[in-house]
Amino acid sequence: MVKTDSDGFLLHLGDWNEQVAIELAEKEGIELTAAHWEILWCLREFYQTFDLSPAMRPFIRYIKQNLDLEKANSVYLLTLFPGSPAKLAAKIAGLPRPENCL
Is 101 a catalytic residue? Predict the structure, then answer.
């Protein structure tokens, strides 16, 4: 397993790959499905574009522009990533913690 901080975020973003994502998700009690992967890849694309892990609202706007409109809402994201979707999805996607997420 790769090194993480005390909250489970990767210490080195370059350590991320799909197997690491699966392991990080399992630690959170999540079994990744195609729906999860779609959001994770979208989140990683956001990060590559803006060099920033988004908080919920900017990420929802980005999903609205790049995926189905029905997926661009907090209720949908909460079903995939319970609690704090932006934070949890960023962790599993191997990205830094979003600044506005506790």
Answer: yes
